[in-house]
Amino acid sequence: MPIRVLFSRFRSRLFPLTLLGLLLVVSQALAQAVPQPQTLIPASPQIAAKSWILLDADSGRVLAEHNADERLPPASLTKLMTAYLVERELNRGNISLDDTVRVSENAWRTGGSKMFIEVNTEVSIRDLLYGIIIQSGNDASVAVAEHLAGGEAPFADMMNQHASRLGLSNTQFVNATGLPHPEHYSTARDLALLSQYIIDDYPEHYAIYAEKYFTYNDIRQPNRNRLLWRDPTVDGLKTGHTDEAGYCLVASAERDGMRLISVVMGTSSEEARAQETQKLLSYGFRYYETLELYEQGAVLNTPRIWGGEKDELRVGVDRDVAMTLPRARNQELSARLDLRPDLTAPISLGDRVGTLEVRLGDEIVGEQPLVALESIEEGGLFKRLFDQVRRFFSSLLSGWF
């Protein structure tokens, strides 16, 4: 067979194979060059409320909001602060759950929702706390205000002092109940922050917020938070309603270790506040996840320290570090430690020595102080002099020593 014919047949078979190989190489190159799509996060749902917010309870990241800083009447959401102060006094040992409170005529006569305590009877702090949280008792709220502060006005002053301490910058209380008053207001953001403190500061009392019923004086009343019956992951917190405020709800739910807090204010009905809250919670859990990055006290670095009893300092964070991010993007997380240069003894436990910076891709999504996890005293005279010499040569020789 002529060589030319043989080559022609060989070429006819070789060309499709060569073309196929070339196409495979090109397709692989294109696959590498074209960026892979990120997790798409849709716009937050349309919520039929005057004001609302959704945040992660651990990281504090706001996932969605609308008019979250608008000052509105909070109605019985006020009782979140009333209950918080009772829990604080319990925690500090100033009162106990078994202490009793004598019910005044003023407390007994308070209008609105009631626990149905009777004048001149003795009621335990435990029952009053349940009555405030579950039954939304205005009479119970006034009774504890009088017991803790001598009256509702001085108790409201205490509420405002703690609102300031907690950073609730758009909140002012005039009473312990939430009954309407033109100078009594709060915001969705402030109420979400307050809920964070309730959950974090006094977890031993938080289970009360998930109770569906409470019976006092042979009167059984349900918790007005309908989501406690509909969603087993919801475990709090408080409803509110007046004509001025509309129907309000602060809710919290936990799924797979992720806790969300939602606030809706000014909805049109009991059913609406439950449905709108469910929309927010479903959105947050579906499209976001919270990762625990570092535990409180974890050693993140051991930088050189000069002039101390020891040569290295254990550095870390003084609180748990969590980040909330769109689902399936955890591979894009990175952390950077920005430490103060030339750390010198003495250094005390808890002193800030730098910053932990967390990025999601190119975006900074969180910063946390880096602190000393131990105290290091000055070394002896010889140690300090020796370190001065070493530091001098270290700076000259770009860290050889």
Which helices and strands occur, and which strands form pairs?
Elements: H1 3-33, E1 51-56, E2 62-66, H2 79-91, E3 100-102, H3 105-109, E4 122-124, H4 125-133, H5 138-149, H6 152-165, H7 188-201, H8 203-206, E5 213-216, E6 219-222, H9 227-230, E7 234-242, E8 246-255, E9 258-267, H10 270-287, E10 288-294, E11 299-301, E12 305-306, E13 315-316, E14 321-326, E15 333-339, E16 343-344, E17 352-360, E18 363-372, H11 381-396
Parallel strand pairs: 12-16
Antiparallel strand pairs: 1-2, 1-9, 3-4, 5-6, 7-8, 8-9, 10-14, 11-13, 13-18, 15-17, 17-18
What keyword list fits this structure?
401 residues; alpha+beta; 5-stranded antiparallel β-sheet
Describe the structure in your own words.
The chain has helices spanning 3-33, 79-91, 105-109, 125-133, 138-149, 152-165, 188-201, 203-206, 227-230, 270-287, 381-396, and strands at 51-56, 62-66, 100-102, 122-124, 213-216, 219-222, 234-242, 246-255, 258-267, 288-294, 299-301, 305-306, 315-316, 321-326, 333-339, 343-344, 352-360, 363-372. Helix 2 (79-91) crosses helix 5 (138-149), helix 2 (79-91) packs parallel to helix 7 (188-201) and helix 4 crosses helix 5 (138-149). By secondary structure, the protein is an alpha+beta fold. The radius of gyration is 30 Å and the shape is globular. The chain is built from eleven helices and 18 strands. The longest helix has 31 residues, at 3-33. It has a five-stranded antiparallel sheet, sandwiched between helices. Residues 1-37 have low confidence and may be disordered.
